[in-house]
Structure to design on (652 residues):
């Protein structure tokens, strides 16, 4: 008997009587989702910027992050011209990335997080290796909580996905919060409302 | 046999100001947890839901494990099974050897601590670098982590500064957390960019899809994995959850219980390796299926390793993680460890006041304090108790089960305490060490009642 068989046999022998799975049913609260999202994202260290066009995004990035002279990656439709440097795809080649702007189709109000799938990314490492990160999301894509988020995700066949809830951080040194541990030093969320 | 936890905590308590600082720091984290929990009106329902999901998992674990393996394999993941820590370490080593790799970058895995993986690999010529900042600090200090979420919570920033000065070239006397973190960022970035194999733990493994979820605040798991050619993720078999949607329940509970955050910065769902790369998942038993068979203790397997129980436990706060001499300390560790080795960890269930605060904060409703009590009974039955404690308990039993004996010894005790207090107020009395003995009343309650009853009749 190999380990697999040993372990499964032991589990089968020792497991208790079958119990039922609960139904997940939490009523929605009908709140102002943009407001809730913005407040919680801000308290997690993110900067939330409501905008009405991609032109606004470009202007803000150029002013706040001085991206004209730095290496930038963008996978946002309508913001391709911000990119600089080769985008040839090897993950290590992005080591000098200063700013990455990516799209999200799902944001969660209760925790200020945004869902990114590998089809939003050229390389999975991009949101982490970049010094700064910006995410563009539509206001109508903000849902109330994680249950709603997973309903939206459904059975999507991604290879990799991640909820990003703020800039990289740590409090491992005497509980002092420091932003920019190993991932991005900042997260700017552009919430687009075209109405 | 010596009570190891008692002896180790005594040492820890030699520095009272430090203990006060440690206590305060951890209680602060408990308070953050409370604040976060109070923002969710349905918090108690969520706990109940998580508990029921985990009960279902334990009652159907073999089927979920097979389902998980099937789906992970369909995603192109290589699945291994390890009966114990030794086998786990050998599997990791064999993957490294197969690829001719001798340097590994690691993100936090308490399971790897349990299996003593780092030591095993290092003995076999593999360099292992822990990338979680807290873990890197204790690795450089050559100590085990003292907390499963905040590994170097026991270290002051000046001490960390000295460690970084010695190993990473920071300026002598530098203790600013911002500066030290920046130094660690540069040092570990070099490591991420050069290591070909990344090892991670697993917070949740989804049977329905074969994907695993790793939660970090630093982004170190992702930096390691997305730059490596090979990803190895190790997990205890109890980390399974049935469906992807159940992640909603657990991700709402985990960070709030652990640090008071609404969610960790990154909740990474690894399903398939990158094109042309390799991903391995190692399923580890190491005593878990045995614990599953213990009716009184199987619910300890519901644990999602948030450490909320550590942060609230008065004993943990004032004795520190190293007093538990095991990979996972605190209340949950005290009900998991005796299953691994009863003799070695017999002291742990006794390192408790049974206040029940742990059970109260546990996001998956493990009845930790009840299990601590039940383990005491099991350990005594198995003979893992010191002779002096055994004698003491027999004596107490004979006094407390006889009304006459209780009356006589009570009267004698009160008499002695009033007339010759030095008999109890001395270093031989363990209870006198950090507290004053109470003032002995003139009469027992029974005597007072008899006396006053007559008065009012």
């Amino acid at each position: 008997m190999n380990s697999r068989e040993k372990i499964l046999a032991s589990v089968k022998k020792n497991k208790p009587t079958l119990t039922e799975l609960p139904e997940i049913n939490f009523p929605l609260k009908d709140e102002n989702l943009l407001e809730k999202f913005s407040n919680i994202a801000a308290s997690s260290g993110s900067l939330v910027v409501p905008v009405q066009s991609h032109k606004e995004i470009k202007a803000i990035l150029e002013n706040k992050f001085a991206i004209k002279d730095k290496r930038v990656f963008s996978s946002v439709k309508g913001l391709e011209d911000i990119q600089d440097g080769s985008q040839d795809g090897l993950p290590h080649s992005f080591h000098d990335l200063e700013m990455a702007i990516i799209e999200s189709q799902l944001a969660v109000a209760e925790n200020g997080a945004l869902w990114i799938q590998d089809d939003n990314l050229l390389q999975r490492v991009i949101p982490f290796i970049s010094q700064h990160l910006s995410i563009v999301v539509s206001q109508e894509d903000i849902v109330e909580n994680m249950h709603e988020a997973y309903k939206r995700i459904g059975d999507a066949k991604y290879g990799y996905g991640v909820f990003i809830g703020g800039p990289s951080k740590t409090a491992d040194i005497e509980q002092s919060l420091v932003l920019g541990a190993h991932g991005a030093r900042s997260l700017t969320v552009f919430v687009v409302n075209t109405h | 046999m010596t009570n190891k936890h008692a002896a180790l905590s005594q040492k820890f308590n030699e520095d009272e100001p430090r203990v006060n600082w440690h206590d305060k720091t951890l209680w602060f984290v408990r308070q953050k947890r409370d604040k976060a929990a109070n923002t969710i009106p349905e918090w108690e329902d969520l706990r109940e839901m998580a508990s029921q999901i985990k009960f279902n998992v334990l009652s159907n674990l073999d089927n979920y494990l097979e389902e998980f393996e099937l789906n992970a394999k369909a995603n192109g993941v290589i699945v291994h099974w390890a009966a114990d820590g030794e086998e786990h370490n050998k599997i990791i080593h064999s993957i490294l050897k197969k690829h001719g790799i001798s340097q590994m970058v690691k993100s936090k895995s308490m399971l790897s601590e349990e299996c003593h993986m780092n030591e095993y690999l290092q003995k076999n010529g593999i360099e292992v670098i822990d990338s979680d900042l807290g873990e890197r600090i204790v690795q450089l200090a050559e100590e085990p982590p003292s907390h499963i979420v905040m590994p170097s919570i026991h270290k002051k920033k000046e001490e960390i500064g000295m460690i970084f000065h010695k190993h990473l070239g920071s300026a002598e006397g530098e203790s600013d957390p911002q500066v030290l973190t920046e130094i660690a960022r540069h040092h570990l970035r070099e490591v991420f960019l050069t290591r070909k194999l990344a090892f991670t733990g697993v917070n949740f493994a989804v049977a329905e899809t074969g994907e695993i979820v790793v939660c970090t605040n630093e982004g170190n798991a992702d930096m390691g994995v997305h730059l490596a050619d090979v990803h190895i993720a190790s997990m205890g078999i109890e980390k399974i959850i049935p469906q992807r949607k159940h992640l909603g329940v657990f991700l709402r509970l985990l960070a709030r219980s652990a640090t008071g955050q609404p969610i960790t910065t990154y909740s990474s769902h690894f399903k398939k390796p990158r094109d042309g790369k390799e991903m391995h998942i190692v399923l580890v038993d190491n005593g878990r299926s045995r614990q599953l068979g213990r009716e009184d203790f199987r619910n300890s397997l519901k644990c999602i390793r948030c450490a909320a129980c550590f942060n609230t436990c008065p004993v943990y706060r004032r004795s520190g993680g190293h007093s538990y001499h095991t990979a996972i300390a605190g209340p949950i560790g005290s009900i998991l460890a005796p299953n691994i080795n009863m003799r070695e960890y017999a002291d742990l269930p006794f390192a408790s006041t049974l206040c029940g605060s742990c059970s109260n904060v546990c996001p998956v409703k493990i009845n930790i304090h009840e299990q601590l009590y039940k383990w005491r009974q099991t350990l005594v039955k198995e003979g893992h108790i010191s002779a002096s404690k055994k004698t003491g308990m027999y004596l107490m039993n004979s006094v407390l089960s006889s009304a006459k004996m209780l009356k006589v010894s009570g009267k004698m005790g009160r008499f002695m305490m009033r007339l010759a207090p030095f008999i109890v107020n001395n270093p031989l009395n363990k209870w006198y060490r950090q507290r004053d003995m109470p003032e002995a009343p003139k009469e027992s309650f029974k005597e007072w009642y008899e006396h006053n009853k007559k008065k009012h009749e």
User: Anything to note?
Assistant: The mean pLDDT of chain B is 95. Chain B has 21 helices and ten strands. Residues 16-38 of chain B form the longest helix (23 residues).
